[in-house]
Amino acid sequence: MAQRPSVREFLSSSQKLNNQTQELKDQVVALESERTQLLQQLEKAVGSQVVAEGIEVPIVQIQRRPYKSRREKDPIAHAELVDSIRTYGFRGAIWVQKLPDGSLRLIAGESRLDAAIDAGLEIVKVDVIDTDDVTAVKLSRIENVRRRNLNELDDTKELLYLLTLMLQMQEEEVIKLLRQMKNATEGNAALIDPQQEQIIHQAFAEVAPDISWQSFVSVRLRLLNLPEDVMVVYNSGKLSYTKALAIAQVEKEDFREQLLEASVSNGWTIDTLTTQIKALKSGSTPPKPANHPVIARLEKMEEQIQGISSKKVVKMSAYQKRELLTAIERMEKALQGKKAELQQFRNEE
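Now predict its structure.
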């Protein structure tokens, strides 16, 4: 017969459940308040006459943006949002643009939309905005900057997409134009068309006042060409964009891999990383990542086993020798089992 919980255990469990329930309720209230604030911000930006609030729309009818974030989701935050939706229903705001053909395209709320899908919803309420593509991208940027949803690479892609719309050019042409504009200011190229220059200045002033267009050209555009191994670690959120750009300068892939592991595991500053890269280029030995505590304990155990000399064994009693052999056999069996598990993990990579 199962043992009944004590009064203390029951009260403790009930209090924990109440706390969790209150936390979810607080999240709902915060989302509702946030939705009201966002709607006010939206109507201020485009006017209330072009916004249709709280329209129920099948999720399958919402098109995604032409540019997609490669940044990995925070699994804990995503799971909490999914749980909140399942418990209390969908809250918060999703903005969609009404296109000329009547279809709908996502402007802002990608994380909430993904959570709604994982929560099993088929219909969500959205705010439909009847506006042009340029304004839609500007609104998307306002929301993403506020939420800090984009890393620097995604931010760069969003700005480039906005410039393609404003300049009516392809992305490659925009990049070429930006580089020519920078070279022209340095006296190394012909000046670009004054109207195009004005549009570029306008775009940065309106949606990226904290980024100079010169820095965008000389630094941010380099993120588009990160090596794939650096790109993966950067998009996981474990590496800042400045460190990613620094490691990307290393041509040898095996050196890059060691720098990535060492930088993440050791928590290197950008100065330390730069010093290590200079040492590599001068022919020094590549850095070795810090060992995981589990590995360190195993290495310590190996040292202790190696320290069991024949002189020590000779001094043992017959019983102690049998116990030592039994212990080594148990350890050997445990190591073989653990090795098989780890081999399975390696095969799944």
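The chain has 15 helices and five strands.
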